[in-house]
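Table S2 (text version). Query chain:
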Amino acid sequence: MKRICVFTGTRSEYGLLYPLLKKIQKSKDFDLQLIVSGMHLSSEFGLTYKQIEADGFKIDEKTEILLSSDTDEGVCKTIGVALISLTDSLRRLKPDLFIVLGDRYETFAASLTAYTMKIPIAHIHGGETTEGAFDEAYRHSITKMSYLHFTSTEVYKHRVIQLGESPERVFNVGAIGLDNINELQLMTIEELEKEIGVCLKEKKNVIVTFHPTTLEPETNQENTLQLLMALDQTDDIKILFTKSNSDSQGRRINELLAEFVDKNPEKSKLIDSLGQLRYLSCLKHFDCVIGNSSSGIIEAPYFKTPTVNIGDRQKGRVKPESVIDCNTYSLDIKRAIEKAFSQEFRSSIKKMNLPYGDGHASDKIMDILKSELKSEINLKKQFYDIKW
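Corresponding structure-token output:
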């Protein structure tokens, strides 16, 4: 059996990986190894490793890397700690393949460690662009260190090839987050109300996830205040906030959200982590998604739920028609929310095309892994030059 090691450092990333983890766990061809790190091990972010264990997974390595800091210096030091700590984890596990997803700095550090230790890497969700975040450079760097590539659209597949990766090793499988929508039994509206303690039948309900724009650090606090001003000025809504991640200034955003909820307890609620089942159920039953998370661009459109996408953090991604882009000023955010609730807009997106696949990405990945791991992987990659 081939040892396949999967790395996860955040709640959102684990939620996306969940269907693939289940299939690897059940496979007769593979032995699943799991490294859990980053925000999963932090009480500040809900100790979400417990959910991973509750889901029936054996955690082979709990690798502490996260510093209690949301400054650029703190992120740099976290990367350094990750390189040291993950070296020991991978030395013990000795995997045949290392699977990573996305573009975060923890994932970059994990990939750099595996690459240096000559462990083949399979990268999910490469080729995308997020022009407002450090993630842009991390993602493309991970691509160059990886051997296998699983992209979510044809556009992203071609971009990975443009980075010099051989087309024979690049596969468009669709967005893996859609698999959960197909495979999980999502909550009814009554079950969800009981779980999160919010009534969803009286007012318009919005779920808000707002992360730092890491390449514009001087604007994060003001952008958050502008968002909160727009929400405060929007009548007849109930707001469910999920916490920002551990990027630079993420903690300051969470402080501002907490202050808003303290002042507006009848209108809003803040939750550390919803987990994949509750979060997807919210996307299904809530009336609108607001913020700058990729889930508003990939998963929310599947439910025909409108998304108000704020600022440049997701600039460059392929976006379905249900996504309304706006700048970071409160008046423009408020106008975008009003558009999202208009009957004309909601009717217009009912028959829109979805660019992120059919919800069977994990099955396609499993088939490719079985084929690719039959023979030995040659890490001496040649740069693939596109003929212009």
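Notes on Table S2: The chain has two domains: 2-174+358-372, 187-348. The chain has a mean pLDDT of 93.
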